[in-house]
Amino acid sequence: MKITIVGTGYVGLVTGACLAELGNDVFCLDLDQRKIDLLNDGGIPIHEPGLGDVVARNRAAGRMTFSTDVAASVAHGDIQFIAVGTPPDEDGSADLQYVLAAARNIGRHMTGFKVIVDKSTVPVGTADKVSAAVQGELSQRASEALFSVVSNPEFLKEGAAVEDFMRPDRIVIGCDATPAGEQARQLMKKLYAPFNRHHERTFWMDVRSAEFTKYAANAMLATRISFMNELANLADHVGVDIEAVRQGIGSDPRIGYSFLYAGCGYGGSCFPKDVQALERTAREYGQDLLILRAVEAVNNHQKHVLGTKIVRRFGEDLSGRRFAIWGLAFKPNTDDMREASSRVLINELLQRGASVAVFDPVAMPEARRALALDFAGDAAAVSRIHFCDSPNDALKDADALAIVTEWKAFRSPDFGLLKTLLKAPVIFDGRNLFEPEAMATAGFEYHGIGRSILTRA
Ligand code: UDX
């Protein structure tokens, strides 16, 4: 099938590459010439395991084209995926300007029937706006070309996106009940047929419900995390081990084990943005989502949990102190620094006069960019951030180690060496990588999240 993907960001590139892998002829459009040049030179603008191979293979097979040519992109695909960014507005709602601009481009150039798929995470009602934008362009050209807007949200996790796409646990597709909608449904059915061979994974629904499903899924997952974080903070006070509790409740199939890990807060491009956007949608309809407001507040608070523990241990004034920080990306296997907890911790430590020695296995270039933005105009603060070449390098002469991202490389460190490199054997573990008893036995002062059973009064 002939597919066009508008936007070669995270979602667009993964979707395009995986659809090409299934044998489709995929045209990827981006208006950023540098990105297209990079892709045409064999580069990949994001860090995502396995993606480079899939793109290279399908480019070589002639199934992936990268271009900035809008007219050619519209002419190419019977199905046009809109996978451009929807950054949050100042008020938290999703900014639809790129989605609507993509829709207008399609309307401006289309001649035959097109299925227009909203792949970007967009609020309920966006398909109607996309429809109106396309129709507006068609009317100006006095064209009667037919089209249908479909919602097909993505559920990819960064770091596992190719795998998630190729082995989806569900495919959500919303079509409307018009003849054009039915035509769109048939094309979408054909496109996703390879995933439904053994059992049907597609959930067909109306467009608005499909749009809402994406937000509902992310809001539910964010709620689980904030709920566990809140319990972990209480666990710290009452001498309870949140890890034991996680296992105890996760064994109930109604609850399940996943997404119950307490930590130093969730980040990334989805949860923070989508929780806010759903709250915003609710407000537009005069509703107040009390739980989601709390989910967001707990998470903002949780990003300070390591800073708070460090202050409790070392005092308010941290000038002259140095802290090693392992892990900067918002989660492992990505270089994404959006809404990363590390940024909050680094800011707090620098504000209190400390210096930080930071290391991340992949995100160092992104971290440099993100931290330069966070501390723009504060050269003194930036000079106290030391970007290190290895985890051990970061430890040298540090008063303590703080772990912010659970990269595999941090899970089995040489504890003996760690002790000799740190000024004192103190660890603040924002992802509960180690067992408190074992750490105590090994001679460490260990501060996990919700695991202070050993220090109970
Ligand atoms: C998420 C959704 O999982 C995915 O379905 C959706 O399409 C996009 O948003 P992603 O943002 O890539 O994916 O990361 P995810 O693995 O979900 O983790 C998000 C954040 O939650 C990370 O900061 C992670 O550290 C944190 N997290 C996750 C926890 O703190 N505890 C957990 O138990 C799980």
Description:
The structure is a single chain. With 457 residues, the protein is of the alpha/beta class. It folds into two domains: 2-205, Rossmann fold (3-Layer(aba) Sandwich), CATH 3.40.50; 239-455, Rossmann fold, CATH 3.40.50. It is built from 19 helices and 14 strands. Strands 3-2-1-4-5-6 form a six-stranded parallel beta sheet, with helices on both faces. Strands 11-10-9-12-13-14 form a six-stranded parallel beta sheet. It has a two-stranded parallel ribbon with strand order 7-8. Helix 1 links the parallel strand 1 (2-6) and strand 2. Helix 1 (10-21) packs across helix 3, helix 5 runs parallel beside helix 6 (126-140) and helix 9 crosses helix 12. The model has no long low-confidence stretch (mean pLDDT 95). Uridine-5'-diphosphate-xylopyranose binds next to helix 9.
